[in-house]
Every structure is written in C-alpha cells, then in structure tokens.
Design a protein that fits this description.
Radius of gyration of chain A: 22 Å
Helix content of chain A: over 70%
Helix content of chain B: 25-40%
Number of helices of chain B: 18
Number of strands of chain A: 4
Chains: A mainly alpha (about 350), B alpha/beta (about 500), C alpha/beta (about 350), D mainly alpha (about 350)
Number of strands of chain B: 22
CATH topology of the largest domain in chain B: Rossmann fold
Oligomer: heterotetramer
CATH architecture of the largest domain in chain B: 3-Layer(aba) Sandwich
Strand content of chain A: under 5%
Structural class of chain A: mainly alpha
Strand order of the largest sheet of chain A: 1-4
Chain lengths: ~350, ~500, ~350, ~350
C-alpha cells in the first residue's frame, strides 16, 4: 500500500501544472474583488468549454506524434453549417447536430487518410484543411448567421444551478462527458494505448503488430469529431454561426496541450493535464481582465513564456532522469550497463 | 533432403525477387522442435529476406512454407505471430514510453467489459517475465531500463504460450558477454520447452556456443545445412565468403612487420584524463605508427574514452597533450585541426549523412576543417571523392550516389574516406567492422595496419577480441568505465584479456 | 523527493484555501443579493446617487483593427482618467469569445455598468441575459447587437445604415448622378460593413445611372484596400468612375493603388469613404479624396454621461446617436487642426 | 523514343519540375481567362502590370521563403516570422515618430516628413530587433534543444503581444516619405522591393553555393549528429539559420510597413508563416530537412502570390480564395508524395515501353 503514495516521476509535470493553476487561482482570490465568487471558477469552464473539448481531441493527435492546425477552422465551419442548416433549410437541430458532427468527423478522417496513406506531413495537410474549412464557411455565408431555433435557445439558456447563485450550462456537462470518455479511451482501450505506442515509436508499434495506419487515421477522425462537437457547443454558446469565429484557436489548443505536460514529440502526456493547460490560460486571461488596466496582449506574452517554461521543465525532467539512471548504473554497473540509455529515453 | 518428420518448420524452394535483384533462389530451410538453428551468411546473403518471407513482411514469388506439416502463408508479422512464429528484431522494436507490462502485452491485452484490465495485464506480464527468470517492476516505463533488459522484454513480448518458433535477429549485437550469457540461458530454457529457435548473428563464437545446426546462405542461394559440431570454424567462414582465409594469416605477419617501426616519442598523451559519470581518469600514450586496441565489454567505457580523446565530450579531469602541445579546447573541430579523426561507433546515427552524396560525405570533414569560406569547388570535391572511391574500393556507381543507398560496409568505407581526406595523423576507429560482412571486415582491418605502416597512429575499438588482437600492437583493457590494464607484445593473448575483462 | 513534498504542500495549501474561499463566498452570496435589490430600489429615490468617482465601468473593446478604433480606445481611456471613473478595460483582439469572457469577468467583479462594442452582431443573448440577471446594465457602443431591446440599456453610436445613405448622397453629389462605382467592403459580416453597404444601395436604388460594378472585401485595412483596388484597376481600368470605401483606411490604401496605376485619385476616380479620420482630411487637402462621412470615435464623454445616467436609473433613449457630419475637401483645411484622430 | 522518355523522366525527377509546372499552369490560366494579365505598360517611368504586381506583392513572401528555406533545411521550422514582421514594422513606426503610440494623435505631432530619428537608424534598429528575435529562436533550438516548432511557437504567441506593447495597441500611420521608398519606390522602372529581394536571394545563394554553408546546412539537416562528429559546429549552423530567417522577416516587415505606410501590430504578416512554409514546401524542400532549393522556394512564393493575384484579377468572390488555396496546396503536396511519384513512374514507364 505504501508505494501507492510514492508519486511516479512521470506525473511531475502534471503536478506542476496543477500546482501552478492553484497558485494562480489563490493569487487572484486574494488580490481582486469578486474573484472569490465561485462563479468565476465555473466561468473558466463555461467560457472555455469548446476549447477544452477540442484540446482533448488535440491531445490525442499530439500524443500520436502529429499535429492538427485545422481545428479552429473546423469549429467555425461547424457553427456556420449548423446555422445554415437550421435557419436556411429549416432543419430541426436534432437533425442538424448529428449531421454537422458527421461532417467534421469525415473531414478529420479525410485528413488522417491523406496523412497516413500519402505520407504527407500532418502540418501541411491540416494547414490545407484549415484553409478549406475556413473557405467553406465563407462560401456558405459571408455574414454571421443568427441561430433562432427555440431548441438552440433553450439549450443556450439552460442552467444547472449549483450551490449559492452559481450555475453551469449544458456546455460544461458536455465537456465533462467528453473528458470522462477521453480518459477512458486513452487509458482503458487498445486504441488509446496504441496512440501512446505510436507516439513513442511508430516503427516499433508497426512491428509490434499494432494497427498503426488505422489508429492514426482514427486519431485525426476523433479530433475531427471533437472539433465538430466543440463547434456544436460553440454554436449553442454563441447562438450564431460565423466564419471568423475561433481564428487561431489551434495555437491556444497546442499551447494548452504543452502546458498540460504532453510532449510535442508524442507518447507522453495526459488528457487531464490538457484540461489544466486550458484552465491556466483562462485564468491568466481572467486575472488580466480583473486587473483591468493591463494590455490584454500580456495574456499572449505570459502564455508564450509559460509554454517555454513548461518545455524547459520537460527537458529538465528528462535529462535529470537520464543522469540519475546513468549514476545508478555506474554504482552497480556489474549488473546493468546503461548503454544506449540516452537513445531510448524520448527527447523532450 | 532433411527428414520432414521431425521438422517443425519446412521452407521449400523459396524464391524471392525484388526489381532487378534475385534475393532468394530456391532456398530450402528446416527447423526442428527443440532446436537452436543458426542462420549464417554475409550481408546480402539473403538471411533477412528469408526471415521476412517467413514472418509475412514480404511474400515469396514461389516455394512453400510448412508449419507442423500444414502449408501456411503469413500475411503480416501479426498474422505470423498468431500462427506461432514470433520474431525479435535486431533493433529493439518496443515503445520506451510505455510500461514494461504494456510493451509485453499491447495488442493482446486482457480485457474486462471491453476495457483494458490493468490488474490482469500486470499479472500476465509478470508471469511471462517469470518464465524468463526476470524480476523487474512491470509498471515502470521501458525506457528506464538498460538495453539488455529491453531485449529480454522484447523476447517476452514475442513469446506466447502458443509460440512454436522464435526468431532472434542479431539479438546480441548490443549486449555484453554477461548479458549474452543470460540470453543464452533463456534460449536454452525455451529450447527445452520444445521451441524451435532461429538465431541470426555475426558472432561466430556465439554460434558455436549455442546452436545445434546451422544453415549457410550466400548470394541468395543455399550453401548447405550442417550440424554445428561437425563444421569447423574455418570451413564455415570459407563457406560464407566463398574463398579461403589465407589473407588472415598474411595480416598477422604484416602486423609484426609494422610493429617494428613504431616511434619512440608519444604523439598523444593523456594524463589522468577523465569525466565524471562517463569514464574514470586514465593515462594513455599513443605513438606514431602504432595500433592501440581497446578491449572490454560493451559499456566498459571504450566509446566514452574515445569521445574524450576526440573532444566529443570535454574532460573535467586531467590533461592531454598532442604532439607536445597541451590541449585546451575540446571539440571535434579542434581535434580535426590537430590531425585527429574519429569513426564513431554508431555508423547510421553518428557517421553517415544519408541524404547527401558519397562525394559530399567524403569531403565533409575536410570542408569542416577548412571553415565556412574556404569552399572546395565541386570539381575539387569530385577529384577527392574519386580518389578515395578507388583507393578504398568503395562499391558505388559514381560519386553522386546518395550514401544511404550503399551497403553497410561501403558506408563504413565512405566514413573512413572522409577521415583519410583530412590526412590525419591519428585515427580513432570505434567498431569500424560492426555489422559488415567478413570480406569487408578483413579489408578494413588490413587498411588499419597499412595506415600504421604509413606512420599514422590508430586506436582500434571492437567488441570482437579476436579482431582487436589481430590488428593491435598494444591493447588497453577497460572494465566498468575504468582502464584496468595495458598489455603489449607477448601478453597479447585472448585468454589473458578475457580474464582481465571478467575481473578475475 | 524534497521537491515533491514542497509541491504537495503547495497543492494542499491552495486547495484548502480555495475550498475555504468557496465556502466563505457561497453563504455570502445570498446575503449580498438583498442588498443589491435594496440598492436597485433605492436608486430611483435619488438618495444615494452615484458620481463619476465611485462609478466602476467594464469596457469590452473589439481590438485595434483600425485607426478609428484606436482613437475610440484612447477616448474611452482618457475620459475615464479625467472623470476619475474606475475603468476595467479589455481588448478582445477581434475575438467575440474574448469579449464574452471579458463581460463574464465584469459580471463577476460586479462593476456598475458594462460597455461593449460587439465585434459581430450575433451571439450576445446568453451573456447579456447573465448581465441582466446580475443587475448590471449593458451599454452598446458604436456597434449594435442582435438581441431583444430589454437586454441592453442603450446604444450609443452612429447609424451605419444612415452613414451608408449619406455616403450614397455624397457620391451622388460628386458624380453628379452618373457613374460606375467599385466598392471596398469592410470585414465580411461585420455590422458596419453590412449596414454601410445596405444604406448606400438604398440611396442609389433609384439612381439608374449609378451602378456598382464590383465589390470586394478589404477587411478595413490599408494593405488589403490597396491590394484589392489594384485588382479592380487591372480588371476594369478606366471604366471605374468612383470608389466607395467602407472606411478611410481602405480608401487611403486604394489611393496609393490608383496613383501607382497612373490615374489621379479624386479626379479620374472619385472617392467617398466613411470615418473621417485624420488621414482622410489630409487626403482631401491633397485633393485625393472627395468626401468622408464622419463616424465619430471620440465617444468617451458621451459614454460616461450615459453610464452615470443609466446607473442612477435615469431615463435614456434606446439609441443615442453620436455627433457626426459629412465633410468635403473645401472644409478640410480649416478642420484639420481640430481633428483629434 | 527512348531518349525522349528518359529526358522526360529526368525532367520529371528534377526538383523544380512540379513548381515550374504549377506556375506555368497558373500563367496559362491567366493567358486564357484573364484579359490583359500579361500587359506591361510604362507609366510614370516605371513598369506596370499584373506581373509586376505579383513580383512586388510577393516580395515579402519571397524574403520569408528564403529565410525559411534555410531553417527548414536544418530540419527546423520558424513559426514566428509573422510576429517578427509585426515587431519590425512596429519598431520602425515608433522610431519614426516616438510620440505616436503613447498618446492620442493630435495635429501638432503630425508634420509630414519630420522625424527625430535618422533614416538609417529607422532601418537598422528594426532589423537588429528582428535579428535578435531570430537569435532567440536559434538559442532555444540549438542550445536549449527545444523542438523548433515549439520553440518558435513561443515567439509566435508572445511576439504579437510585444509588437502591441511597442505600438501601445495602436495602429501607427507613418508620415515620412523617404521611408516609403523601401516598399513602394521604383528604381529603373522596377519596384525597389524587387532589388532587395534580389540582393537577399543572391546573398543566400552565394553563401549556400559558393561557400561551405550550404553543405553544412544540408548535412546538419540530414544528420546533425554525424555532422557534429565530422567537425561541423551543428549548433552554430542552426543558430545562424534562425538568425538569418529572423533577419529576412525583419526586412519583410519593413517592406510591408513601408508599402502600406503604417504599422499594424495585429494584422501585419498575419498567417504569413504558413504561407512561407508552404512556399518552401511547394518549392521542393522537405520539411524533414536536408536538401534545399532556394530557387524552388522563390517559385513557391510566386505560385502562392500569383494565385492570390489571379483570384483578385479574375474576380472570384473573396470567400472562395481559401478553398482554392486549400485545393492547390493539397494537389501540390500530393504530387510530391511517394505514392504518387511511384505510380507516376509506373504510368510513364508503361507508356515508354509501348511506343
């Protein structure tokens, strides 16, 4: 039982992320009037629900060693398509939502297939996907389309009251479901473990007989689905569809994943870390808003520096582990020699 | 014709051609239950193609494969594994970021209600490792463990209860003697359980140590299958390379001749040079015209020593003088300026620059030593490249071939050419013959002695003691990252060095 | 292992603190509520009227996409300083998500009044409803939002449709009722772009000789304005009689393009634009621009006046138009020194 | 028959084959469908026409592509060039009129063509700033061993914030005509920006083909470790590549701010990093590093720019631009993929066999 209390070193980056979040929160809590309102905490989830959902999808992509630049565009496309289908075609939201989810998923599947079967770099393929999805938004409508269907409005105004005057809307519930599903997927299914394996060493995964091609396509498909779902959540949140929504969101998502302790080379990281990555960014933004006089661009600068800090920390952890191992193996080198150690610990 | 009755596996008349190459022509192979069968041959003899056909990576053009008397056709490595054919490849093909347990069982993990049952997973992994007498924490990331253990994990992964055949492709190339012995224990144990094991290696010692039978391939054709006990070593080698080995005799003579011309004054001198965590302080002298061998197990500190001498790592202890001058700046470039050259151990990772041409690879170090602005014109580059292609007998259509398209031995020669082009006084060769065939090996060993004869100083590092002894005038023995002995002249005996290495 | 202990300690400490905080805040919330109601009731009684000094304002600005906007921002900020209003200012970097987040944080901070220039018209209902529930009035500045009237206190700003109409009128005047027009549209989908296009078309609808032959988005920026104008000139060349630009920045970009093409802006191609920023006056003095319809960015004074009124429960109109004019080159020289933006 | 097929094959395997074909296709399209696209006139003593426009508009992108080529050749990538453009432009604008950006613009501060800072400083300081940005990226990549994409992401995110701080969140209009010459002037009938591009290109070409820099860059990009063992200071090679890329982005920033006579920290060079990477990839340099082609990157930049100009000239609704761009990118990238290459080879071989 005792060993349960020993924290595995691989959890450290995650703990640092959580610790930082709590520190930031504590700072705001004692510094600003109104910050102590628990609703401020819930607002982090409410305002970032879509980012949280899409970042979870992005976590899988990055864990598999890939990248997806199209998510912001796919979200915008989903909102426009939802608005268009429900307003101009008069379809019921219960028809529209599955349709747009399908479209987003397909888009992801197509990109994943091109990446996998044509061996083109994800960076370029998803860049093209981003152009395509943004372009399609404007082909459908150059204007913002208001969504007036009562179903959407009801969803949007729906509140689940918690203690005091606090509440959460349906967005947050969807996010929680996605989070639970993602953690299950990552740690309790073969798909999830295969994603980690591919991120660790794709060649090995292939030789271990794992379904690499299928999994990689699925990862992008899953991310397409998450983006589309985030798009649905966003269209409920905004009650409109617009091609300029969530511009540059992919960078926020990538930064969240990195701050959340996932290595961009793939193979190492946690879905839960990403959640805190998003929340930290939201918290920085909130703090700067509460401060009230700082230029909002400080958010960007702080997030940039934080990203850097976390990357530095990751490589520090990795090299610390390496030297520790080397030292250990010198002590009892008779048994175990650390040859090739450095090559096998993935570079941060 | 082998007796088909007790054969576990029978491959008959296997042919495989790739565009323009006949990789396998009418090859027969048989494997018995409870047998360790070595597959021998030079590089390009067709060993790996045969394995690929067997494990479903490639499909034969003709011929059939019988397992337990039934014809099989593996579609993929996974399918082969389901059929009972498990493979451990030369480079450890596992995921360092996953836990040991997962590495063993991923792809066939135990499930409960459709989700991975982690308790059961750990339990099963431990069971499998127990079978191999290995006791490690299965929840730790694989990358935390040394290579030898990773190799064992790879075998554990390959083994299933239903495995009938285990293929080990060069499993010992990165293991030291102790670890190899451990591996052999495991192999013997599995053999006792009735598994058929196909064992591929370049180490002849090991073949004679462990195998029951061996099959020799040459140029895609079967030379023959022999009982190990009945085939003398020299015969095996000549069957593999297809010619006699008088050359080796010549070389020993040659070495004695060159030994007479070693300079008195040391060219390179290290005094208590060392680096914490890498190599204990040591003293070293190297003379012009001399070949100094480094012997020791893998990981004993041979490469680390070479790295210090060449400035890949900087020492934090002691001093080094070169040609009477104290060395202050440690970096490869400074070493090149001093007239040193270094063929690193890992040819693929640290040696060749795959996407560049042979010509560019050859001039690389020379160009680096000349700096950014003293550019060698393409014409001059071709001149240099052609000279060394001819001198070292590099098999390439022309100097503008990409170096990654060359065979391992020729790549090694290109790296040698790169260094010879800088006209060095001192060469450090770390495992220059690893993974290349016997023919090219001899050529390189000979070249080293020729260089010594020209008055250059060489350090020759190799895992094969025999090779070190054949080429070196003097040998330094390392153990546990420490120089433990220096032998010369009559002391150069295999047995004696072995004792020192073993620490007894 | 030491580091992990420290970490654990920090984690534990902060968790405890935040739990205490939530716990403390939760019961406090209902206690505050009646007070607020009381305040709301008390206000009309004019007993404790707020003054500028104790006014807390949250302002969710769009960003800094044009000179007009930066002048607008400067006006809001400077005026707050002058009046002693406590201003919480947030720059949304052209993202509606950020504006909504800002408004939520203003609500949490319990500011007295929220000012917002919506980046687009749609998508505001939910968050405005929250502001309303929290009893914080919202003032729309410069741009409208497509929400029911009861969700905001008032709209301060110009009528973009009216600006479009005035631009049409001015165009009619400089073209003398006849000509082929190209149009540089603002950011696709934004309220000013939509309305300025709409108003302009409304006016020229009954002028059969005035025709829009091409219309492209220049994103309200100079660079795009220039690039698109170049393309117009390539395609239509001298057929173009006039240019209608949705803002001055695009017009200034287009002027460069026209000059580079070898035509004289203001003569060969008449130009009418909206905003009346400094650059436009300079262009008019140089004879390169024929008319600019003012859209006044200096809304600071008007905004705070309104904010105070709203907080003190005074009646305000649902739309308070900003003070604006239409300027022609003849007046430009005289007016230039007065222009602040 | 034989020689022709093998010539065709050689041609097809030449690294610049596809970029040239793509560019020719776009030009052919214009020849057929865009009247007057190829018309060149002389107006006010300088050359004028769509082709000149493409070159002029494409100048910043070409500069970025040159710098990016070097970085990508070392197996890196620089996502921060857009932010560096903004920083350089902002620095230049603030230097020209330091009062701007700090307070509300009032009339007395705006006297045309007067600045407290000499022109050479106005040009030099932003370039130094941009180079320092490149240095920062280079240090993170080469010394701190951070993945290039992440290392430059930091500046990409934070850089625009820095630019905003320089301009104090305002768009600064520049009133200083000597400065306009950089991005808007003409020399011997051609846009001055072209001469800058030509100079940078020649410089890059010279150092990469007439000094050993090119060899070192390709070597480091292919195998950094081998290069190190061969005596190449691989860290410095990478560092220099990023510094050069930052420098190129700085020039591009000056060109852009000079051309539109203002500095917009928000929008200057927005998404240009993606265009630059695209240009390099279209030009045939692999993102995995190693072999690079400067000419290819220039062609790539021209393809992207002529596509944009064509779309404007052809009167395609702006909303379709992105979709078209996406499809073109995909087409070009697929043409480069191994699968297509192999099947093309097969196709052509079959045709060659049956005369």
């Amino acid at each position: 039982m005792m060993e349960k209390f020993k924290i595995d070193r691989k959890f450290w980056p995650l703990l640092v992320t959580i610790g930082l979040f709590l520190l930031l929160y504590a700072y705001g809590f004692f510094s600003y009037r109104g910050f102590s309102n628990p609703q401020v905490f819930f607002n982090l989830f409410i305002d970032n629900a879509f980012l949280l959902i899409t970042s979870i999808g992005m976590t899988f992509v990055i864990l598999s060693g890939g990248i997806d630049l199209s998510i912001g565009a796919v979200i915008a496309f989903t909102t426009v398509l939802s608005a268009y289908l429900s307003e101009d075609w008069g379809l019921h939201p219960l028809v529209v939502i599955p349709m747009v989810l399908l479209v987003g998923t397909l888009l992801g599947a197509v990109m994943g297939s091109i990446i996998q079967f044509f061996k083109v770099q994800p960076f370029i393929v998803t860049l093209a996907g981003m152009f395509f999805a943004r372009g399609m938004c404007f082909v459908i409508s150059t204007d913002a389309i208001t969504i007036s269907h009562p179903f959407y409005r009801t969803l949007s105004l729906f509140r689940i009251p918690l203690f005091g005057k606090t509440f959460i809307p349906i967005n947050v519930v969807i996010f929680l479901v996605v989070l639970a599903a993602a953690i299950y997927l990552a740690h309790f299914t073969r798909f999830g473990r295969t994603v980690y394996a591919i991120g660790g060493n794709e060649q090995s995964a292939l030789l271990m007989g794992l379904p690499v091609a299928r999994t990689k396509v699925l990862v992008y498909t899953l991310n397409g689905f998450c983006s589309a779902l985030a798009g649905v959540v966003f269209s409920v949140y905004m009650l409109s569809g617009y091609g300029l929504y969530t511009n540059g969101l992919e960078l926020d998502a990538i930064a969240s994943v990195v701050i959340g302790g996932t290595q961009l080379t793939g193979g190492v990281g946690y879905v839960a870390g990403t959640v805190f990555g998003v929340l930290i960014q939201g918290l920085i933004q909130t703090t700067i808003m509460f401060q009230g006089t700082l230029n909002s661009w400080w958010t960007k600068i702080v997030v940039g520096l934080l990203t850097l800090l976390f990357i530095m920390m990751q490589s520090a952890f990795a090299s610390a582990r390496r030297t520790r191992l080397a030292a250990k193996s010198i002590d009892k080198s008779a048994d175990r020699l650390p040859v090739g150690e450095t090559e096998l610990v993935p570079d941060a | 014709m082998p007796n088909t009755n007790d054969s576990l596996l029978l491959m008959q008349g296997i042919c495989k051609n790739f565009p323009g190459v006949q990789a396998l022509l009418d090859v027969d192979f048989s494997l018995r239950r409870g047998e360790i069968h070595a597959l021998m041959g030079e590089n390009g003899a067709g060993k790996s193609t045969l394995i690929k056909v067997l494990t479903g990576v490639e499909r034969q053009n003709s011929g059939k494969i019988l397992l337990d008397g039934k014809e099989i056709l593996a579609k993929s490595p996974l399918h082969a594994q389901e059929l009972g054919i498990s493979t451990v490849f030369q480079e450890i093909n596992l995921c360092p970021n996953l836990s040991v347990a997962e590495n063993i069982l991923i792809g066939r993990e135990p499930k409960k209600f459709g989700s991975i049952n982690w308790t059961q997973l750990k339990h099963q992994a431990r069971q499998i490792l127990d079978r191999l007498d290995i006791d490690i924490d299965v929840t730790q990331s694989l990358g935390m463990y040394p290579v030898a253990l990773q190799q064992m994990v790879a075998i554990a992964r390959a083994l299933e209860i239903s495995s009938k055949i285990l293929i080990l492709d060069e499993p010992t190339s990165s293991l030291d003697a102790r670890e190899t012995e451990k591996l052999f224990d495991v192999m013997r144990k599995l053999k006792g359980e009735g598994l058929g094991i196909i064992f591929i290696t370049h180490f002849l010692d090991q073949v004679y140590q462990i195998s029951d039978r061996m099959t020799v391939l040459r140029n895609g054709r079967l030379v023959g299958t022999y009982d190990t006990a009945e085939l003398p070593r020299m015969d095996l080698v000549s069957k593999m390379i297809g010619r006699s080995l008088d050359e080796l005799e010549d070389m020993t003579r040659f070495k004695h001749e060159t030994g007479k011309r070693i300079a008195q004054e040391p060219l390179l001198e290290a005094h208590q040079l060392g680096r914490t965590g890498s190599i204990q302080p040591f003293d070293l002298e190297l003379h012009a015209g001399e070949v100094l061998g480094f012997a020791g197990l893998l990981g004993a500190g041979r490469t680390e020593t070479a790295n210090l001498l060449f400035g890949v790592d900087s020492p934090d202890h002691g001093t080094m003088t070169f040609d009477g001058q104290e060395v202050k700046k440690f970096s490869p470039l400074n070493s090149i300026h001093r007239g040193m050259a270094y063929c690193p151990e890992d040819r693929k990772a640290d040696g060749i620059v795959g996407d560049l041409t042979v010509r560019e690879n050859i001039v690389l170090a020379l160009q680096a030593s000349q700096g950014w602005f003293k550019f060698l014109s393409p014409k001059k580059q071709t001149e240099i490249a052609d000279k060394y292609i001819k001198l070292l007998n590099i098999a390439t259509p022309n100097a503008d071939q990409l170096v990654k398209n060359l065979s391992g031995g020729n790549q090694q020669k290109v790296i040698l050419a790169r260094w010879l082009a800088t006209n060095p006084q001192t060469l450090i060769l770390d495992e220059p013959t690893r993974g290349i065939d016997v023919g090219a090996k001899t050529e390189i060993q000979k070249l080293v002695l020729e260089l010594a004869e020209e008055g250059k100083a060489c350090i020759f590092i190799s895992s094969e003691l025999e090779e070190v002894l054949r080429t070196s005038h003097r040998v330094m023995v390392l153990r546990d990252r420490e120089v433990v002995a220096e032998l010369a002249g009559g002391e150069l005996e295999e047995k004696k060095i072995m004792q020192i290495i073993a620490g007894s | 292992m030491k580091l992990s202990k420290v970490l654990l300690f920090i984690v534990a400490l902060t968790t405890i603190l935040s739990v205490i905080g939530c716990g403390a805040a939760a019961p406090a919330a209902p206690a505050e509520a009646p007070k607020e109601e009381a305040k709301a009731e008390a206000q009309p009684a004019s007993s404790d009227k707020k003054t500028y000094e104790d006014l807390v304002v949250g302002y969710a600005q769009i960003g800094a996409e044009s000179e007009w906007r930066t002048a607008n921002t400067a006006s809001i900020k400077e005026e707050a300083e002058k009046l002693g209003v406590e201003l919480k200012f947030s720059d949304a970097q052209q993202k509606q998500e950020n504006q909504i987040k800002a408004i939520r944080s203003f609500i949490a901070q319990q500011v007295d009044v929220i000012g917002v220039s919506p980046v687009v018209e749609t998508g505001w209902e939910t968050v405005f409803q929250e502001a309303k529930d929290a009893g914080i009035p919202v003032i729309l500045v410069d741009r409208r939002a497509a929400v029911p009237e009861d969700l905001y206190a008032t709209y301060l700003g110009s009528d973009f449709v009216e600006e479009g109409r005035r631009a049409g009128e001015a165009m009619d005047k400089v073209l003398e009722g006849k000509g082929k027009i190209v149009e540089l549209v603002g950011t696709v989908g934004s309220a000013p772009a939509n309305d300025r296009a709409k108003g302009f078309r409304e006016y020229i609808a009954d002028k059969p000789d005035m025709e829009i032959i091409a219309s492209q988005s220049g994103d309200f920026t100079r660079a795009k304005g220039k690039e698109v104008m170049e393309a117009f000139l390539k395609s239509y060349g001298k057929d173009i009689n006039a240019l209608y630009a949705h803002n001055d920045d695009m017009a200034i970009g287009a002027i460069q393009a026209i000059e580079e093409y070898g035509l004289k802006p203001g003569e060969d191609i008449k130009i009418v634009s909206v905003d009346a920023v400094r650059g436009a006056f300079e262009a008019m003095i140089a004879g390169k621009l024929n008319c600019t319809v003012e859209c006044n960015p200096l809304l600071g004074p008007q905004f705070y006046e309104l904010a105070l009124k709203v907080v003190n429960g005074e009646e305000v109109a649902k739309w308070v138009p900003s003070e604006e004019g239409v300027y022609y080159p003849e007046e430009a020289e005289a007016l230039l020194p007065e222009r602040k933006y | 028959m034989k020689p022709t097929t093998s010539l065709l094959k050689d041609l097809r395997h030449h690294s610049l084959f596809w970029p040239v074909v793509a560019l020719l296709l776009i030009m052919l399209f214009n020849l057929l469908f865009t009247p007057g696209f190829f018309r060149l006139e002389i107006k006010d003593g300088h050359l004028f026409g769509s082709l000149v426009d493409i070159l002029n508009r494409g100048a910043p992108l070409m500069l970025l592509a040159i710098g990016m080529t070097m970085v990508i050749a070392t197996a890196g990538v620089d996502l921060s060039v857009g932010a560096i453009i903004a920083i350089a432009g902002a620095a230049a604008a603030v230097l020209i009129n330091p009062a701007l950006g700090r307070e509300l613009v009032t009339s007395d501060k705006l006297i045309e063509d007067v600045t407290q800072t000499p022109l050479w400083l106005v040009i030099l300081i932003p370039l130094i700033a941009a180079t320092v940005c490149g240095l920062w990226n280079g240090i993170l990549v080469s010394r701190a061993n951070i993945q290039p994409m992440v290392a430059t992401l930091v500046l990409m995110v934070a850089g625009r914030g820095i630019a905003q701080l320089i301009t104090n969140g305002q768009i600064i209009t520049i009133y200083y005509s000597p400065y306009f010459y950089i991005g808007g002037g003409y020399l011997f009938g051609l846009p001055f920006s072209l001469y800058i591009v030509a100079a940078v290109f020649l410089f890059a070409w010279y150092i990469s083909r007439k000094t050993s820099v090119g060899l070192f860059v390709e070597s480091v990009g292919t195998n950094a470790s081998s290069s190190f063992y061969s005596g190449i200071n691989e860290k410095n090679v990478k560092l220099l590549a990023y510094i050069f890329c930052g420098f190129c982005a700085g020039i591009a920033g000056l060109l852009i701010s000079s051309n539109v006579k203002s500095a917009d920290a928000n929008n200057a060079g927005l998404w240009s990093e993606l265009d630059a990477i695209l240009a390099v990839v279209i030009g045939g340099t692999l993102m995995s590093g190693g072999r690079f082609s400067l000419v290819g990157s220039i062609l790539g930049a021209l393809i992207i720019q002529s596509m944009t100009t064509t779309i404007y000239a052809f009167g395609v609704p702006p909303e379709v631009v992105l979709v078209v761009k996406a499809l073109v990118v995909l087409a070009v990238v697929l043409l480069y993929s191994e699968l297509v290459k192999v099947s093309m080879d097969k196709l052509f071989e079959q045709k060659g066999v049956q005369p």
